[in-house]
């Protein structure tokens, strides 16, 4: 009597990058992407469960992050790599694929904080700050959102800046400021009381009158250290006012850049949930065989893959528009709106596929489900981005 050994299921070779998007990168770019993948898998992944559960940030990863040389990657400025936005986007996706919180840490520092200085700073300011930030010797934050002002920051900013001799005095509060409790400097956006225009300031977090309270009790992006900042007569020299930021249009230029990065992060979050669900489906057996062989499970997996592949393609084209200098607000807004909706669907299907185990952090999907809720909302809600795109395609503004 002979017996036939059961064949061990094998995940398909194209299960992760189904349309081979990585082939759009140059060989040296792929090498860097794979180094980021290795770092996230070996150095960061083992720390996530404990830190996510405790809402703490694993500061021990910062030196390794610095060695990757990815902070400020797309900027052609002092100390910055000057790489392609396509590579920068894929790296943002790769980091989020392991953990959206760490991707947010990177996005706030590299995109929002460094981006503000790269786009709006004087040559002296770029030389003074960007090389140290690229080496993560200074960790940056971006202070725009306020306790009572979220989507309405363009016209309702309440933090004020008052000129006093050769300095400025800042008063107000900022909320949801990622990295602030662990950071060194924060780009604060405030309304000039004299001309009513929005201006940007680089503020040291240890400045007198600058206080940060860590925000607790979040159920999403728990590793991200968000701060409630209070500015009580904080004095900032004219040398630390961003010389190229003189209206909210300049703030919006930074957001246009980073909104594209959030779309990439949404793809990474969806990939992380899908890939963990796929591995689970191949390994989990019911009724004597892997559940990956069931029709309804394959239906869920293909829906997830379709969402990811569609979003990945949109982001790849968006980044190529950035690299050619053709990207506009409407392009970033459509990607952010669409990719975050697809992400939300995908992480939900991943949890559904895993049944009750899907809510256990040990199975590495529930964290993506929770974190997706924050990505869905920040850097412009779906509704606000819809109105930006709606105005672009109709020529009519629906903003009130």
TrEMBL record:
<keyword id="KW-0285">Flavoprotein</keyword>
<dbReference type="Pfam" id="PF02771">
    <property type="entry name" value="Acyl-CoA_dh_N"/>
</dbReference>
<dbReference type="InterPro" id="IPR006091">
    <property type="entry name" value="Acyl-CoA_Oxase/DH_mid-dom"/>
</dbReference>
<dbReference type="Pfam" id="PF02770">
    <property type="entry name" value="Acyl-CoA_dh_M"/>
</dbReference>
<dbReference type="InterPro" id="IPR009075">
    <property type="entry name" value="AcylCo_DH/oxidase_C"/>
</dbReference>
<protein>
    <submittedName>
        <fullName>Acyl-CoA dehydrogenase family protein</fullName>
    </submittedName>
</protein>
<feature type="domain" description="Acyl-CoA dehydrogenase/oxidase N-terminal">
    <location>
        <begin position="28"/>
        <end position="136"/>
    </location>
</feature>
<feature type="domain" description="Acyl-CoA dehydrogenase/oxidase C-terminal">
    <location>
        <begin position="254"/>
        <end position="393"/>
    </location>
</feature>
<comment type="similarity">
    <text>Belongs to the acyl-CoA dehydrogenase family.</text>
</comment>
<keyword id="KW-0560">Oxidoreductase</keyword>
<dbReference type="InterPro" id="IPR013786">
    <property type="entry name" value="AcylCoA_DH/ox_N"/>
</dbReference>
<dbReference type="InterPro" id="IPR045008">
    <property type="entry name" value="ACX4-like"/>
</dbReference>
<dbReference type="InterPro" id="IPR006089">
    <property type="entry name" value="Acyl-CoA_DH_CS"/>
</dbReference>
<feature type="domain" description="Acyl-CoA oxidase/dehydrogenase middle">
    <location>
        <begin position="141"/>
        <end position="233"/>
    </location>
</feature>
<dbReference type="InterPro" id="IPR046373">
    <property type="entry name" value="Acyl-CoA_Oxase/DH_mid-dom_sf"/>
</dbReference>
<dbReference type="InterPro" id="IPR036250">
    <property type="entry name" value="AcylCo_DH-like_C"/>
</dbReference>
<dbReference type="InterPro" id="IPR037069">
    <property type="entry name" value="AcylCoA_DH/ox_N_sf"/>
</dbReference>
<dbReference type="Pfam" id="PF00441">
    <property type="entry name" value="Acyl-CoA_dh_1"/>
</dbReference>
<keyword id="KW-0274">FAD</keyword>
<dbReference type="InterPro" id="IPR009100">
    <property type="entry name" value="AcylCoA_DH/oxidase_NM_dom_sf"/>
</dbReference>
């Amino acid at each position: 009597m002979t017996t036939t050994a059961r064949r061990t299921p094998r995940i398909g070779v194209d299960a992760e990058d189904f349309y081979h998007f990585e082939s759009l990168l140059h060989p040296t770019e792929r090498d860097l992407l794979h180094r980021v993948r290795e770092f996230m898998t070996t150095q960061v992944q083992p720390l996530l469960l404990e830190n996510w559960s405790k809402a703490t940030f694993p500061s021990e990863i910062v030196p390794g992050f610095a060695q990757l040389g990815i902070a400020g990657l797309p900027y052609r400025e002092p100390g910055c790599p000057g790489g392609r936005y396509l590579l920068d986007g894929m790296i943002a996706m790769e980091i989020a694929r392991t953990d959206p919180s760490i991707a947010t840490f990177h996005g706030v520092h590299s995109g929002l904080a460094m981006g503000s200085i790269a786009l709006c700073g004087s040559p002296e300011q770029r030389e003074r700050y960007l090389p140290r930030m690229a080496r993560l010797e200074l960790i940056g934050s971006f202070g725009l959102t306020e306790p009572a002002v979220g989507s309405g920051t363009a016209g309702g900013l309440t933090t004020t800046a008052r000129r006093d001799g050769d300095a400025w005095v800042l008063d107000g509060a900022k909320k949801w400021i990622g990295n602030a409790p662990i950071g060194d400097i924060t780009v604060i956006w405030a309304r000039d009381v004299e001309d009513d225009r929005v201006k940007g300031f680089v503020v040291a977090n240890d400045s007198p009158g600058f206080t940060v309270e860590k925000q607790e009790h979040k159920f999403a992006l728990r590793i991200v250290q968000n701060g409630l900042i209070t500015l009580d007569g904080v004095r900032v020299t004219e040398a630390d006012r961003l010389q190229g930021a003189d209206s909210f249009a300049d703030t919006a230029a930074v957001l246009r850049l980073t909104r594209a990065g959030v779309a990439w992060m949404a793809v990474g979050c969806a990939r992380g949930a899908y890939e963990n669900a796929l591995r689970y489906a191949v390994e989990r057996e019911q009724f004597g065989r892997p559940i990956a062989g069931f029709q309804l499970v394959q239906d869920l997996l293909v829906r997830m893959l379709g969402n990811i592949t569609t979003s990945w393609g949109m982001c790849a084209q968006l980044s190529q528009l950035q690299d050619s200098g053709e990207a506009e607000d409407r392009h970033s807004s459509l990607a952010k709106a669409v990719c975050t909706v697809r992400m939300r669907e995908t992480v939900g299907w991943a949890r559904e596929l895993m049944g009750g185990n899907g809510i256990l952090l040990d199975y590495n999907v529930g964290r993506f489900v929770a974190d997706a809720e924050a990505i869905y909302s920040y850097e412009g809600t779906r509704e606000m981005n819809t109105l930006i795109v709606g105005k672009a395609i109709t020529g009519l503004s629906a903003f009130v």
